[in-house]
Amino acid sequence: MKNLVSLFFPHEDKKDYFKSLDGLRGVAVLIVLLSHTSHEGIFFHPILNFDFFGKIGVYLFFVLSAYLLDRQIALVFIEKEFNKEYWKNYFLRRFLRIYPLFFLALVFHWFFSVFGISTVIDSWMDIPAHLILYLGESIFWSIPVEFKYYFLSPLLMLIFHKYLKWDLKKIMLVFVLTALGILILNYNLVLSRISTLRYLPIFLVGTFISITEVFKAKNIQGINKRKIDFIGILSFVAIIISVPQFYEKIFLNKVNFQSHQFYLPYAILWGFILLAAKYGDGVLKFFFGLRLLRFIGTISFSVYLFHMLFLKIVMIIEMPDYLRIYFFFILTFGFSSLSYLLIEKPLSRIRVNNISKYIPINKFIK
Hints:
Blueprint: H1 2-8, H2 20-39, H3 54-78, H4 84-114, H5 126-131, H6 142-162, H7 168-188, H8 196-215, H9 217-221, H10 225-241, H11 244-251, H12 263-279, H13 283-288, H14 291-298, H15 300-316, H16 321-348
Helix pairs in contact: 2-3, 2-14, 2-15, 3-6, 3-8, 3-12, 4-6, 4-15, 4-16, 6-8, 7-8, 8-12, 10-12, 15-16
């Protein structure tokens, strides 16, 4: 059992490891999975109908990505460790994090389409179009959005460091004006579905939390645990109530919660939940720290990229309908576990040089 734990939780014994982070990823990808299974009409129980709610799970991924990346980069600027070695490793790791598995997923989807199991990629010509981030069909829409943010993030941090001197009031003003500007743009222009600019306010919530955590560490650590737990629980309840099927039954009204005016509210709610999971001491920290959720979060990228293929497979296999969702999760988690162990985990160890000699790696584990 201990060996199994070390395979999927290599940082388990590190004192400052933020365990709930993996659980948050697990919830994010489960929302996506339940949305897509609900759309196909298969459920663990009909009450768990999350149809048309998958994007809200992806918003959590965006908040978490910005939080982790920008916290790391802020520390690098503060300690003046922004040397060539660091940036080489930064971009190498971002590339290796996304592209090998992304390419494999595209090939798998195309390969199965040849045999009549069509999901996303119907032509091999779609593969290069996705790889250059020109297309983002179906589940792949989030890849160009997030990958382009990897390039935008260092520029934002440079501006905050060089010109705003990490003044949180000025940074907050920039964020508010940016969010308002993008909201106006989204109302008046049709920004591309795969435009990072369209979803930038979501990322900025994670960015602001990370910067506040770095520069106001004592303030954040001194947060009243009961208050942050309470706010986190209210935020979680608000998100659950906004599930279309729940909202319609409660309020007898339909609202398109995937519309752009809800990007920032959802991001803020996820931000409060993130803070409660890390700094609280109640039910959310316990929930997101559950080992099953953390396991799902660990393999979440593979799960996200390949689950539509397995969903299509279980929908065409002859079996009782009530068994389909169980087979779907078994196939998806089984394959994704292998993908994580054989591809993701080995690639995560690759460095240009030993970057840890420049920057204490434990600063980025929290």
